[in-house]
Amino acid sequence: MIEISIASGKGGVGKSLLASHLALLLSGKRRLVAVDADAEAPNMNIVLGIKDWDRVIEHHEGRRAFILDNKCTGCGECLNACQFGAIRVVDGRYVVDRWLCEGCYTCSLVCPVKAVRFERDVLAGWIRIKEKTRWGFPLVSAEIVPGRPNSGKLVTEARNTARELFREAGLMILDSAAGIGCQVIASLAGSHAAILVAEPTRASISDLKRIIKLTQHFRIPSMLVINKYDLNTQLYRELKRIAHENKLYYLGEIPYDEEVPRSYVSMKPLIEYNPDSRAAIAIRRIAERLDNILSRFDEWRLEYLPEAYKPFEPIVIRPDKTLG
Amino acid sequence: MINIAVTGGKGGTGKSLVATSLAILLSKNIDGLVLADTDLEGPNDHVILGIEELENQESITLFLPLIDTTKCTRCGVCVKICDTGALFMAGRAYPIVFPRLCSGCKACYYACPYGAIREAGHVLGYTYVTPVCFGNGCFKLVTGMLLEGEEHTPPGVYRTLQRALELKPELLIVDTGAGTGNAVSMAFRDSDLVIVVTEPTPLGAHDLDSILEVTDAMNKHVWLIINRHGIGDVTILETVLHRHRVEKIFRIPYDKAVAEAYAYSKPLIIHYPKSPASKALIKISDELMGWIKH
Description:
The complex is a heterodimer of chains A (about 325) and B (about 290). Chain A has about 325 residues and is of the alpha/beta class. Chain A has twelve helices and 14 strands. Chain A has helices at about 15-25, 45-50, 75-80, 105-110, 150-165, 180-190, 200-215, 235-245, 260-265, 270-275, 280-295, 295-305; strands at about 1-5, 30-35, 55-60, 65, 85-90, 95, 115-120, 125-130, 140-145, 170-175, 195-200, 220-225, 250-255, 315. In chain A, strand 5 and strand 6 form a beta hairpin. With about 290 residues, chain B is α/β, with parallel strands linked by helices. Chain B has two domains: about 1-60 and about 125-295, P-loop containing nucleotide triphosphate hydrolases (Rossmann fold), CATH 3.40.50.300; about 60-125, 2-Layer Sandwich (Alpha-Beta Plaits). Chain B has a nine-stranded mixed beta sheet, with helices on both faces. Chain B has a two-stranded antiparallel sheet with strand order 4-5. The longest helix of chain B has 18 residues, at about 275-295. Chain B is elongated. The two termini of chain B are about 15 Å apart. The model of chain B has no long low-confidence stretch (mean pLDDT about 95). Chains A and B meet through helix 4, helix 6, helix 7, helix 9 and strand 14 of A and strand 3, helix 4, strand 6, helix 5 and helix 6 of B. Strand 14 of chain A pairs antiparallel with strand 6 of chain B, so a sheet runs across the interface.
C-alpha cells in the first residue's frame, strides 16, 4: 500500500479540502482508504458531508493521577517534581490538574506517604469508521477527548486500524494535523510521499519551511500544492522557488474561490456542489496529475527522494564528559 | 496580572491576527504587556508583526536520563516505567536512551532503585523575548519554537508560558496553537478570559464545539469572535453556541485587506487602520480595555 500524507505546517490552508477531494476523485480508479489524522480537529468527514459512522471504537489508554486528601501531608514534593506544572495548590489542597497530567508516575514516586493514586484506562478518544462512503472508499477518523494529551498516539492507532481493516487498498491518503509535532510525525513517519499545502502568505511560507525540514529528516519525497495562489504574485513565485530549491514536485495550484466555504456550508464536497467552479477544476487537474504519479510511483519516488539525507539529531547536553 | 488567551480549535481562523492586533492596540494604554506565542509548532506572531529576527534566545531543555553504567544493574525498572518508549533494553544489555522520544517526565530518574540515572538535558526548542514598538505602544513578544523533528509540544508550551511570566507582565496575552489537545488547553489553563476565534463554516463549528467543551469544563469566561463574517453561513454556529457558555460575540467582517496585510507581513491595524476588519478589532480592543479596568 502506498501511503501519502497531506501536511502543511500552518493550519487552515486547505489540507482537508485537498485530502478529501483527492480521495474522492481517485477512488473511481483506485482502491484506497482515507485516514483523518488530525485527531484534535478532524474535518474530513465534514468536507465529504458524512454524517454517520458504521463503527465507533472507544480508545482507552493512559492514566491520570489524583491525590488522596486524607493521606496527603502537604509536603509539596510532588509539586516540585512534576515537570509539567500539573500539580497545584487549590484552597490549601494539593490537586492534580486533569488537563495537564499525562500520568507519568513521577509524583507517585516522590510522594513519601503514598497519597498519589491513578485512574487507569482513561478515555483518550475515538476511532470512527465509515466502511463505504458514497464514493466507495472507506474513511477512518481519529478524535481525542478535547483538551487531553496523546493525540499522536491516537493517530498511529487510527492508521494501524486502517491498514488492518482495509488491507486490499493500494493507497492510503492521510489528512495530517496543523503543526510539526507528534500528530504530524505520527502521520509522516511511514508515509511513502507527502503532499505539502501552502498559501502565498509569509506565515504559511514560514511554516512550510519547517515541515520541509521534517520531510527531509524522514526522507519522504514530497509534492507542493499552492492554495489561493492568486492572493499574491510575489509570494506565489517565492513558493515555487522554495519548491524548486527543495526538490518538491510541483503538483499544482488552486485559485482563491468563495465557492469553497459555500460548499462547506452545503455539507457537500466542492466537486459536487459546483463542479465548474475554478477551485473544483484546479483540484481535478491536481488529482489527475497525482494519478499519473501513482502509476509510475517507484520511478517518481526515486527522482524526488530528498537528496542529502538530513537525519534528525537531537541536541543532548551531558552533565560531564567523563560518562559515555 | 491579567491573563487573556486567544484560541480557536481550527487552524487558520485568525488567532494570530487577533492576538497581535490586540497586543498592538492595548499596549497604547497598558505598560508591561506581554504577548506569548505558544504555537510552538508554527509560531507566526513575529511574522505577522514583521519582526525579522527574534532576540534573547534561551534553550528549552528537558530532563534526559543518562545511564550510569557503574551503578546500573540492568534491572529494567526504568524501561517499564517509561511511557514514551524513550528507554529500550535489548536482552540484558544496558538501557539505551532515545532522546527524541523522551518527554522529560523524570519518572525513570525517581524509579531507579540504584540511583543509576543521572540528569542530562535534551533541547526541545527555544524561547525568545523580543521588544516590539508601534508608535507609542510597546510590548514584549515571547515566542516558543519547537525544533523540527521534536514532538513533545506540551512541555515546550509550559516553558514558554513560564518565560512570559518571568517578565512579570501587567497584561499577558497568550496566543495558542491550532487544535484542541493539551498543548492548547495547557496554554489557556490559567487565563482569566479566553477569546475563541472561529469562522462561520461547519469546520469552524465542529472545532469550536470541541474547544468550548474544554472552556466550559474549566469554567472560563469566554468571548467569541466570528472571523470572516460574510463568507459561509453564521447560523451554522448557532447550535454549537446553544450548548456552551459564551459571554460576548463579536464579528470581524470578511475583508480583503486582511489577506493583503498578511501576504506582506504588515500588521493590519497599522497599515489599514480604516479597513472594516481593523474597525472591528478596535471595537474588541475597546471592550477589552473596559473589561480589564472593571
